[in-house]
Amino acid sequence: MGQPTPARNDPDWWRSAVIYQVYVRSFADGDGDGTGDLAGVRTKLPYLAGLGVDALWFNPWYLSPMKDGGYDVADYRAIDPAFGTLAEAEKLIAEARETGIRTIVDIVPNHVSDQHPWFRAALAGGPERELFHFRPGRGAHGELPPNDWTSEFGGPAWTRLPDGDWYLHLFAPEQPDLNWAHPVVRQEHEDILRFWFERGVAGVRIDSAALLVKDPRLPDFVAGRDPHPYVDRDELHDIYRGWRAVADEYDGVFVGEVWLPDTERFARYLRPDELHTAFNFSFMTCPWDAGRLRASIDDTLAEHAPVGAPATWVLCNHDVTRTVTRYGRADTGFDFATKTFGTPTDLALGTRRARAAALLSLALPGSVYLYQGEELGLPEVEVDPEHIQDPMHARSGGVDPGRDGCRVPLPWAADEPYAGFGSRDTAPWLPQPDDWPSYAVDRQQDVPGSMLTLYREAIRLRPAFGDGPLTWLPAPDGVLAFTREGGARCLVNLSGTPVDLPEHTRVLLTSGPRAADGRLPGDTAVWLV
Ligand code: GLC
Fold first, then answer.
1. N or C: which end of the chain has fewer CB within 10 A?
2. Domains in the chain, ordered, with CATH?
């Protein structure tokens, strides 16, 4: 399958990698049953290699009742039959590696599925209760939850069992939280890490990484009180030091899902004996505004520098509004709390900006995450409520559209049924909108100016920036201009007016056409040498 890429044996690959996120359920359907699977991913490895990505991050592919798209894991050592088998996963990991692509799996340590053997045994009254947070209720008859915590998906974070006790779930009731004060929980997760590293994975994404440890007293939440009863508690760092020791045996790397506003607290997770990297959500949620983006980039680089960790750059993922849609709205930032149905969107504008943002993020120092379909310019889909499966929707009382809008199965071939996903007889698990074929891979492949071509070119040309630090260059208001020591320059025009390109430079790549007089129009980026 071609020559190994030069990056193949570089132990520091993760410091500057382009990592493609595969939401298996919606990526490619190998067996035609309407659900994406590992067989589908295997057939698309040449596509991914052609795109030039260094690694794949797979959302959870384990045995799961799919109450939260696989983030409710019933067995961390088995592949869900809808996706394939463990033997197939092993083949996929090996085949990807042969094409120079590493694999990152997603471990969900905060909670398990209510179908996990531990929770079933706990419900049956076994000692496994200690592995979770079971408590009697408050009130005269225990009819009130043990404390006032709310679930991230809305509603109380506690569910009462027929025997009267309550159990904690920071997410859906089908996702009971584990008790990380218990040594068995720690041991089990270190074993799970080993299990996947033994199978050749290069890295692990850690789901909800800052939520695992709870204040043992389980007190009510008091706004502003420090420490928080379950977010970012100091005890977490010892857990991750243990994980790091396991990863080091295999040269494995971590990327943590750490949502924290405090940059100093965030950076603690990235100390040299903890996690290698964490997602940069401040950049992902940053509005399309030159000053705000520059501040976000500066803060990111400043917070990572003291701990020697590389930054990550993320524009979207399986939880948030797709980039071309977000940038085409009045509010170009992202906030879970303000998502609604029917938000007006200018997709042409959003797409121009997303193209410029792609060149911006791929020019910055660090690694870049690319969510499947971003390279096709897929918009967020407003899924008909009757088809929505994401628990966020139902638990919000139907107000929040949930996250299925960025999880619609990918279009591969414009003229095939379901744009090449599923089969003639079986519709994809989420319906695709009518214009989906126009985004299909075969409509964009090798087409000059397509989003796919832009991404492929950008990933190919990205080494022109080298691996040096970033220096801002003087630029007009509303324009971001920087260079990387000894490398190329990037200019992004977020002002409303065209700007001149610097003299004595050659254009490597632009995100959109230049003006007739050669200037760089608004919402456009250029790479120069
Ligand atoms: C993370 C995942 C999200 C999931 C949640 C609970 O935030 O990205 O998809 O619903 O954790 O596991």
1. N
2. 6-110+183-461 (3.20.20.80), 117-168 (3.90.400.10), 467-528 (2.60.40.1180)
